[in-house]
Design a protein that fits this description.
Pathway: Cofactor biosynthesis; (R)-pantothenate biosynthesis; (R)-pantoate from 3-methyl-2-oxobutanoate: step 1/2
Strand content: 5-15%
Protein name: 3-methyl-2-oxobutanoate hydroxymethyltransferase
Strand order of the largest sheet: 1-2-3-4-5-6-7-8
Largest sheet: 8 strands, parallel, barrel
Enzyme class: transferase
Catalytic activity: (6R)-5,10-methylene-5,6,7,8-tetrahydrofolate + 3-methyl-2-oxobutanoate + H2O = 2-dehydropantoate + (6S)-5,6,7,8-tetrahydrofolate
InterPro entries: Pantoate_hydroxy_MeTrfase (IPR003700), Pyrv/PenolPyrv_kinase-like_dom (IPR015813), Pyrv_kinase-like_dom_sf (IPR040442)
Number of helices: 12
């Protein structure tokens, strides 16, 4: 079963398609000029197209798809092959946004050489424009090797979901003296060539110190307003999930209620015999 052939596979408007692609220097200019940019996760063509046409500057093909799409309890099980499928879907829907893809757990930790081989797959097979990897200064050699191979890298520090077991669960990072270590990690990753540093679940004061210590832009999720960019998981931002949201999430819509209401109305029409109606049927001639 598929959408009607007249349904566009890329919902981006003609105006959006004509806009130039966001590049790394555009994000750097935002940092240099004191401006902001927005980043959202995306895992499929249609949502990527909507976000792209809405002007979202960066789309993240997040390993959060493990939770939001595949139903796993953590990001750990998602594979490189899974990420490539999601990446190709997002790239096909985005004509303007910079598309960044998470390197999944187990795809880069062993060595810089493994990191390069994995990133090459994401760029060649997935078509993404940059990758994101989790970890501090220990992974500076990996970042350096990736950049030398022509792969732009966004670094991810603070709470790193792939290390949730080592960190003792979903806990705020970078408080007290740990903030100094976070600055050192960020500076090492910048020196290795990372074009941006993402911070997750860190105190606003620490995020501000990191941002002030770096030349490259920073991106925050649960890191306050001092960062150049902000990122949210789109299902959180649009209220698709159930249960309590994280403290740092702002819901811009209640999509769960909208979808549930539409599905209920559809079922009632089918059971009541009012759908399909005459206008939904094909005449004999």
């Amino acid at each position: 079963m598929s959408a009607h052939p007249s349904t566009p596979t890329n919902p981006a408007s003609a105006e959006g398609a004509a806009r130039p692609r966001i590049r790394l220097h555009h994000l750097q200019a935002a940092k240099d000029q004191g401006r902001k940019f927005a980043m959202l996760t995306a895992y499929d063509t249609m949502m990527a197209g909507i976000f792209d046409a809405s002007g979202i500057e960066v789309l993240l093909v997040g390993d959060s798809a493990a939770n939001t799409v595949m139903g796993y309890s953590s990001t750990l099980p998602i594979t490189m092959d899974d990420m490539i499928v999601f990446a190709k879907s997002v790239v096909s829907g985005a004509s303007h946004a910079l598309v960044v893809c998470d390197m999944p757990f187990g795809s880069y930790e062993v060595s810089p050489e493994q990191a390069v081989a994995s990133a090459v797959r994401l760029m060649k097979e997935g078509g993404v424009h940059a990758v994101k990897l989790e970890g501090g200064a220990f992974f500076a050699p990996h970042v350096r090797a990736l950049v030398a191979a022509g792969v732009p890298v966004m670094a991810h520090i603070g709470f790193t979901p792939q290390s949730e077991h080592a960190l003792g669960g979903y806990r705020v990072q970078g408080r007290g003296e740990a903030g100094d270590l976070m600055i050192a990690d960020a500076q090492a990753l910048e020196a290795a060539g990372a074009f941006a540093v993402l911070m997750e679940m860190v105190p606003t004061s620490t995020a501000r110190r990191v941002d002030e210590a770096l030349h490259v832009p920073t991106v925050g999720i649960g890191a306050g307003g001092a960062t150049t960019g902000q990122v949210l998981v789109w299902q959180d931002m649009l209220g698709l999930g159930s249960g309590k949201s994280a403290r740092f999430v702002k819901k811009y819509a209640d999509l769960r209620s909208v979808v549930a209401g539409a599905a209920t109305a559809y079922r009632e029409d089918v059971l009541g015999g009012t759908f399909p109606a005459a206008e939904h049927e094909f005449p004999e001639s």
